[in-house]
Write a structure and sequence with these properties.
4 strands; homodimer; three-stranded mixed beta sheet
Chain lengths: 121, 121
């Protein structure tokens, strides 16, 4: 399966200042937040439950070292509504989605530490 | 520096079929293509040259293994117009940008092999 197609505008201002367009850091955050939500939804459905809502934000921090700029931290924050899901099972699945979703696996081993804050509403 | 802000719609159809919205794989490709172009532009400018155009596409391949779906390959294809830039220096900088741009560094060590096709027009 090949994907190509997204075209988004970004500029020096939108990356390093406060322009309105997007930037690569936003895109990698959006990719992980979206993938994480989709993966967690599949895991919850696999338990025979039907999540009412899953909302995930990603906060991406850009730092730097001798080589140059680098993304050093991504914090995922997810909020889930789902009747019949126990706190224990929720925590297990939320962690599994962080380990196994394809975008998390793409970033694993790179420069970023990925943190997760998961809340069952 | 923290970034959050991109909100894009995607659905099961846009990810695995042919819906019109975006999907995480497109976003990670767009992030790397954009970051790569910006980084290569900075490297060329550092040589005292002024690139007329840098266009980069990313082709992202989704495969799978025992754990689940994974991004196994990203092909970057870049085309550059720049007066005064030699083929040798161009190849050196094109490769350096692939190694050093922050998004490449985020993906390094993960599931994807990143290939580069670089053409000086």
């Amino acid at each position: 399966m090949n994907f190509t197609g997204y075209q988004g505008a970004f500029t020096f201002a939108s990356r390093f200042e406060s322009g309105e367009e997007t930037n690569p850091e936003e895109l990698v955050g959006a990719a992980q937040a979206g993938c994480y939500s989709m993966f967690l939804s599949a895991l919850i459905s696999g338990e025979g439950l039907n999540p009412e809502s899953i909302e995930t934000d990603a906060f991406v921090s850009l730092g730097g070292d001798d080589i140059g700029p680098k993304i050093d931290n991504i914090k995922l924050s997810t909020k889930v509504k789902c009747e019949g899901l126990s706190e224990e099972k929720f925590n297990e699945l939320a962690q599994a989605a962080k380990e196994k979703c394809p975008i998390s696996r793409l970033y694993a081993g790179g420069t970023a530490a990925v943190e997760l804050e998961a809340e069952l509403l």
